[in-house]
Amino acid sequence: MAENRNRPIRLGMVGGGAGAFIGGVHRIASRIDGEYQLVAGALSSRPEVAKESGRELGLADDRIYTDYEEMARAEAAREDGIEAVSIVTPNHMHFGPAKAFLEAGIHVICDKPLSSSLEDAQALASVTPKNGAKFLLTHNYTGYPLMRQAREMVQSGALGKIRVVQVEYPQDWLTEKTDEDNKQASWRVDPKRSGAGGAIGDIGTHAYNLARFVTGLKTEKLAADLTAFVPGRQLDDNVHIMLRFEGGAKGMLWASQVAVGCENGLQLRVYGDKAGIEWRQDNPNQMWFTEFGKPKQLLTRGGAIGVAPAEHMGVRVPPGHPEGYLEAFATLYTQFAAIIRGDGAEYTDVLPSMADGIEGMQFIMAAVRSSEQDAAWVTLEG
Amino acid sequence: MAENRNRPIRLGMVGGGAGAFIGGVHRIASRIDGEYQLVAGALSSRPEVAKESGRELGLADDRIYTDYEEMARAEAAREDGIEAVSIVTPNHMHFGPAKAFLEAGIHVICDKPLSSSLEDAQALASVTPKNGAKFLLTHNYTGYPLMRQAREMVQSGALGKIRVVQVEYPQDWLTEKTDEDNKQASWRVDPKRSGAGGAIGDIGTHAYNLARFVTGLKTEKLAADLTAFVPGRQLDDNVHIMLRFEGGAKGMLWASQVAVGCENGLQLRVYGDKAGIEWRQDNPNQMWFTEFGKPKQLLTRGGAIGVAPAEHMGVRVPPGHPEGYLEAFATLYTQFAAIIRGDGAEYTDVLPSMADGIEGMQFIMAAVRSSEQDAAWVTLEG
Amino acid sequence: MAENRNRPIRLGMVGGGAGAFIGGVHRIASRIDGEYQLVAGALSSRPEVAKESGRELGLADDRIYTDYEEMARAEAAREDGIEAVSIVTPNHMHFGPAKAFLEAGIHVICDKPLSSSLEDAQALASVTPKNGAKFLLTHNYTGYPLMRQAREMVQSGALGKIRVVQVEYPQDWLTEKTDEDNKQASWRVDPKRSGAGGAIGDIGTHAYNLARFVTGLKTEKLAADLTAFVPGRQLDDNVHIMLRFEGGAKGMLWASQVAVGCENGLQLRVYGDKAGIEWRQDNPNQMWFTEFGKPKQLLTRGGAIGVAPAEHMGVRVPPGHPEGYLEAFATLYTQFAAIIRGDGAEYTDVLPSMADGIEGMQFIMAAVRSSEQDAAWVTLEG
Amino acid sequence: MAENRNRPIRLGMVGGGAGAFIGGVHRIASRIDGEYQLVAGALSSRPEVAKESGRELGLADDRIYTDYEEMARAEAAREDGIEAVSIVTPNHMHFGPAKAFLEAGIHVICDKPLSSSLEDAQALASVTPKNGAKFLLTHNYTGYPLMRQAREMVQSGALGKIRVVQVEYPQDWLTEKTDEDNKQASWRVDPKRSGAGGAIGDIGTHAYNLARFVTGLKTEKLAADLTAFVPGRQLDDNVHIMLRFEGGAKGMLWASQVAVGCENGLQLRVYGDKAGIEWRQDNPNQMWFTEFGKPKQLLTRGGAIGVAPAEHMGVRVPPGHPEGYLEAFATLYTQFAAIIRGDGAEYTDVLPSMADGIEGMQFIMAAVRSSEQDAAWVTLEG
C-alpha cells in the first residue's frame, strides 16, 4: 500500500455526529493513508449537535452545516470546497445527500446499503453526476487483502468451476429487546429508518455482497425465510436464504443478530471442482485454501502464496503483523482517492459501485418478498 | 466409563467382510470396553469371502455363515448362540437381517440409516421382537460426551428457548467421478443400494439426527434443495435444507460430499435466547458455550463445566487426553450392553432407537420429495 | 491398522486395581485391536483389593495374585500361562516386577518412566530375559500417527538440518496443595514412590522422549531449573530446561503441573533449515508443516500428505474422524504383539525400548543434578 | 478511543526515507487518531534520498533536512517548528538524534531498542531535556488493548501470585543467508548498526518488555544461550533464555528468526496460583483467561469481560471487528499526544519510557554476557 504522495483530498461528512459509530470509522479510514482531510460537515440535523461535533473535529465554523443541501451548494461554490463527501447517516437518509452532492459535482462515499428502498436506489442511479463525480459504496469487507486475493483466485480458475457458496454473518448484539436509548440499535430495528429489512439489510447485504465480489456469480433465484425472534421486533433479526446462481452453483446465506456467542462472525466458504477456500472476518489475516487431494494450506495476508499473486491488495505491514477492519475500510478510501485523481483505473473493477448498491437493494427486497410468500423462489428483479 | 465387570456378550455380525470400512469400526467399538465377543458372522454373501473373512477374525468354521436367515435360525438354536448381532451391510440390506434376528429373539445393532426405503423402515418397526429383543441404531455422533452434555444443557434450560439451529456435514471425498472399484463410494452413489438419497442419506441423516438429539426440537416443515454436482451422478452430493421446528425455532442444514478441503466437518451450532453452543466433530473434545453478555467458554470433555454436570457421559480418560470417533461409537455399544443385561434403564432415553430410524427415513424421503417440488415446504409425514 | 487375525495373546497385569487410572488405559489399549486377552493379575498388593478387582475384571480365582513374584512363577509354569504382562504400578514398583517376569520368560509392557532410580534402571537393563522375552516401555505419545510421520519426515530430510526443538508439556492439576486422598496425585508428589523427580519424571520424560523420537537428535548437555511452587511440595511441579544437541541444534523443554488453564498441553515444534513442524497432543489429528517460503500446510492423520508417506502409521478410521490417546496407546500394544509373534521386525525401530527407558532415567537424574547445581550444564551420563 | 479534538501536533521524523519499513508504520500510527501532522524530516542521511522522500511526503523544501542536528536547531527556532519527532533509524542512530531533540526541547518518540549500546542508553538517560520534553519508546505491543487488560488483571490480583511466565517471539524471515540488498535484513545482522545483539535486540526485547509490562515482575537473574544458526552470521538468530524473577516466579523466553513457519509469533503466557492467561499477537483480539478449576474463557478486545474492566484500553471499533498492529501502535502515539498536551497523566504509567529502554538494553547486554559465559546466571545490572 503506497503512502499518499499528493495533497490530501478535501473531504466533507454528512452524519457522524456525537454518538455515531460508523462516522468515526469513516474518518479513521480516510486518514490512515493520508489521502483525505476533513474540512466540512453536516454532522447532525440538530444544530447544536452539528455545531459542537464539528468544532470538536476541528472544522471552521463556516463549514459546519445543518442542512446537507446547503452544504452541497456552499461547498460547490467555494474555491477550496470539498472534493468528496462521506454519507454516514441511517439508510433512509442516504438518497437525499447522495443525489445532492453528485449533482453538485462532488464525489460521494456512501455507507451501505445504498438506501432504504429500491425506488430510492434506482432514482439515485439515474442521477447525472455533474463533472463526472464518482460514487463509492463502502462494502468494506471487500477491502480485505485476502478477499481481493480470493477473487483473483476464482477468476484465475484456481478453484475450478464453483459449485457451493456458504456465507454467513452471525452477531448476537440484538439478542434481547432493544433499549430505546441505544442509538446504534434503535434505528436499525425501525422500518422507517432502516427500510423493509432488519438483519437482511444491515449485515445480510454485506454477506451477499462479499460472496458476489469473490465468486462473480450472478444470482438466478433465492428463497428466504426471515424471522423476528425478539418479541415485538418489527424487522427480521435472523435470515435464512437458499441461493441458486446462474450456471448451477448453489449457496446458503445465514445472517443473524441473535446468535449468542457470535460477535461479528462474517465467514465465506467457496467450493469449486478443483479447490476450496474458507475465510473469517474476525481473524482476517488468514485464509484456508485446499486443492482437491492435497493438504489444506493457510494463506496469510501478504505472506507466501499458493496460487495467485497478492499484488495491489492493500497490504501495509508484513505478514504476522495483523491488519484489521479499519485498514480494509481505508483501502476503499485510498483506492477511491486514486480514482478521484484520475489515477486509479485499476481499481474501478474492485471498488463497490452504484450497481452493487442497486443489486444490494434488489437482494434485500427479494428476500423480504420471498419471505412474505413463505420462502418462494424469487428473482432479484422481482 | 466403567469397565465391563461381566462376561462379554456373544456377538454376531452381518456384513463387514474384507474391504468393508464400517464393519471394522463396529468391531473395535464392541471391544473397547470389553463388553462383547465376536463369535459368529455372515460377513459376506459370497461364500469364499465370508469364509476367509470369518477365519481371519477367529470365528469357528461352524459359525461362519453366508446366509443371514440361516445364521439367525442356527444361532438362536444354539445354547451358546449369539445374544446380539451387528448389521453393517449397505442400506438396502438392513431390513432383512434386522427383521430376521429380532424375530429370532436376538438383539440388533444396526448401522444407519435404518433402511433404503420408508416402507422397509415402517415394516421393520412393526415387527414383534421375540423375547423382547432390543434394537440400537448407530447414530454414533450422539455418543460423544460433549453432545450428551449439550443435550442436558438444553434440557436444563441453560440455553433458554432455542431459536436457531445450524448444522452441517461437509466432506470432499466424492468431489470427482467415483471409481467403480471404490467399494465405499460405489454403493453410496447407487440408488439401488443406497435408496433415493445420496449425501442426504449418508451424512445428512447424521447431521439431522444430531441436531434432533441435542435440541429435542420436533420438525414442523423443511424445504430442501438437493443437487448432484458431479456429471452423471444419480444421487445428490450436496444438500441445502431450511428447517422450521415446532415452537418457532428455525434451522439450516448443509451436507456435502463435494466441499473441497472438508474431511468430515460435522458441526452443530445451537442458539437460544440465553446462550449458544458450538461443536465440531473433528475436534470433539471441546465445545464452545456462551451465555449472552459473557465471554465465550471452552468446555472440554470431562473438564471443568460451566453449567451442567458431565456424569455418565462416557468419558474414559482425563481431559486433555483426546478421545475420538471410536470411543463415541463404543459408548453406544457399551450402554446398549447394559440395556441387554437389564441394567441400562438410564440409557434408554439417549440411545438411538427404532423411532429415530423411522424419523431419519422420513427426513430423507421428505428432503427428496421437497427437492423434487422445487424446494417446497413439506412435513416429515408426507 | 490391520485387525488382529490371530489368537489373542494371554496377558497379565501388575497394579491397576480399583481406583487406578493408567491400569484401565492399558487394558483398553490391549483390547482395541483384539490382540490381547487379560487372564491373570496381581492388581494390588492388598489381598482384598486384588481379589475384588480381579473378579470384577473376570479373572479366574486361581489367577488372581497378590504377589508378583508368585505370579511370575505360577504363570510361567502353566501351559496356558500369560505370555505378556503389563506393569502399571507407581514408578518405584516397576523394577521388581519387570525383572521377575523377564527372568521368567514373559514379555513385559512397562509404564514409564522405567523406574524411580537410575540404578534400578541400569540393573533392569542388565537382566538376561529368559527365552528372549521382549520389553516395551509405554511412551504412548510416540504411537500417534502424526508423530510417526514427523519422525519419517525428519529422517527423509524434509525438514533439512534441525536447528531448534521446542517441546512443552503443561498441565494444571497440581496447582493447589495435593489432597492426600487423591490416589493419582499422592504418589506422584512423594519422592519415595516417584523417585527424585516430580513433574520431570511424570511428564517431562514424555516430552523429552517425544522430542528424541521425532528428531533422533542426541543430547549433548542440558541445564535445568526445577521448581516446587506449591508450598510444602517436595518434588518439582515446574521444569525449565535448555537443551544442546549433538551437531549444534538447541532446544527448550517446559513441563509444568501448575500452568492454570492447561489440561494436557503436550506440544512439539521442530525447525530445520528447510521446514518446520508443529503438533499438539490435545488435537492430535493435525500437524502443521511449513516449507520455508511456502504457505503453512495442515497435515491430517491419514489425510493428504505433503511430503512423506503415511503407511504403517496406525490409522484405523478415515481422516476427519478423530482418533485419540487410547488409539495411540493401542498402537504400541498392537505392534508389540507383532514383535511377540515374531512378525514385527518393522516396528523394532519405533517402539520405545529399554534403552529409551535408561535414557529417560538419565534425563531425569541429569535434570535433578543440574538443578541442584543452579542449572549448570550437565551431560546425561553424569 | 476518543478521536482527536485538538489541533494536530506538529511532527518531524528522522529516518524513514524510501525503502524503510518502520518509518511508514510510525507515520500511519501518527495519523490514525488525527493527533499529529508530519511537517519536517531528516528522512535520510543521503541528500538526494532525503529530498525526494520529503517531497513525496508533502514536506516543504525548507523543512527537509539531511542532518538531524541542523533539523533540531532549525525547528526549535521556528515559531511553527515541530513539537515532537519520531526517530526511526537503525539502532546505532537512535542516541544522537534523541539527545539532540530532547536538548532542543522537542518531544521524542523513539523506536526500540533504545540504542545499540548500554553506554549510549545510559548517556541518553542522563540528558536533561529542555522545557521538560518527554520521551516515548515504541514498544508497540504494549498498546494492544488485551495486553493493557492483562496488566490490569495481574495488578488486580485476578491471577493470584504469578509463578510461571512463558514468552516467545519466533519468526522465520532470516532462515537463509541474508541478501545484502535486503535493507530490512542487512542492518539487523550487522553488529555495527544493531549492536551486540541480533534477534535478542530486534525481537527478544519486545518479548521481554511485554512480559515485564504485563506481569510487573522484576528480573533477578537470567541465563541465556544465543546462537547464530545461519553460517557466517555474526549476530544471534535464536535466543533461549531462562528467567528468575524477584519473588520466585520463573520464566522462559524464546526468540528466533529461523523458526520456519512462524511469521511473527509473539506469544505471552502467564500463570499465577489462581488463574492463567494466554495471548498471541497474530490474532490479538482474543485472550484466553482461565481461573483454576473453571472452563477456559476467551476474552475479546472490548468484548464481555470476565474479571477486569476494559476502559481506556484503546478500543476503536466493536468486538468482532478486528484491530491490529497499526492500531496498537497508534494508541502509543495518541496517548503520548495527551501527555504532550498535559492531559495524559493516566497514561504515564503504561507508556514505555526511558527507564524501559534502559532495562531493555540491560536485558540485551545481560543476555549477550550470559551467553558468552556458557549461559551463566547474570543480573541485568552486570
From TrEMBL, chains A, B, C, D:
UniProt GO molecular function: nucleotide binding
Domain Gfo/Idh/MocA-like oxidoreductase N-terminal span(s) in chain numbering: 9-136
Gene3D superfamilies assigned: Dihydrodipicolinate Reductase, domain 2 (3.30.360.10), NAD(P)-binding Rossmann-like Domain (3.40.50.720)
InterPro entries reported for this sequence: Gfo/Idh/MocA-like_OxRdtase_N, Gfo/Idh/MocA_oxidoreduct, GFO_IDH_MocA-like_dom, NAD(P)-bd_dom_sf
Annotated coiled-coil segments of the chain: none
Ranges for domain GFO/IDH/MocA-like oxidoreductase: 147-278
Protein name according to UniProt: Oxidoreductase
Species this chain originates from: Devosia pacifica
Organism ancestry: Bacteria, Pseudomonadati, Pseudomonadota, Alphaproteobacteria, Hyphomicrobiales
